[in-house]
């Protein structure tokens, strides 16, 4: 019966000065482990147990509001449509560059032919 009671005890046994076998007292945790536990309690971090927790991703700042503020509101009219309503003859940068390039090419005689005066009409 004594052996059964001793075997169910999970702590290792040590012989006391009186000659009896008694469970050993668990040694205190090392200072570094205690400091880690206190740090986790203060800063709210998780104990690393070599498993992926996703905590690194969850700690990052959310990008959704930043992206929503960065892009122009697509629900209504585009910037080009609004500009054309306000200013007559308004062009965006791409259109203005294309138009100025066409003027340069036409002055040199390299621009596109007028409507109806292409290769097919000259046959």
UniProtKB/TrEMBL annotation:
Protein's name in the database: Small ribosomal subunit protein mS33
Q: What main location does UniProt list?
A: mitochondrion
Q: Where is this region: Disordered?
A: 1-33, 101-123
Q: Where in the cell is it found?
A: Mitochondrion
Q: What does the similarity note say?
A: Belongs to the mitochondrion-specific ribosomal protein mS33 family.
Polar residues: which segments have biased composition? 1-10
Species source reads: Pelagomonas calceolata
Record field: compositional bias (Basic residues)? 107-123
- PANTHER family xref list: MITOCHONDRIAL RIBOSOMAL PROTEIN S33, SMALL RIBOSOMAL SUBUNIT PROTEIN MS33
């Amino acid at each position: 019966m004594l052996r059964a009671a001793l075997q169910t005890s999970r702590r290792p046994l040590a012989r006391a000065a009186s000659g009896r076998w008694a469970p050993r007292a668990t040694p205190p945790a090392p200072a570094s482990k205690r400091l880690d536990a206190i740090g986790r309690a203060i800063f709210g971090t998780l104990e690393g147990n070599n498993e992926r927790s996703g905590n690194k991703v969850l700690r990052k700042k959310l990008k959704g509001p930043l992206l929503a503020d960065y892009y122009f509101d697509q629900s209504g009219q585009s910037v080009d449509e609004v500009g054309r309503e306000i200013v007559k003859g308004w062009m965006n940068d791409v259109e203005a560059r294309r138009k100025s390039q066409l003027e340069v090419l036409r002055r040199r005689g390299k621009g596109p032919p007028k409507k109806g005066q292409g290769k097919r009409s000259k046959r």
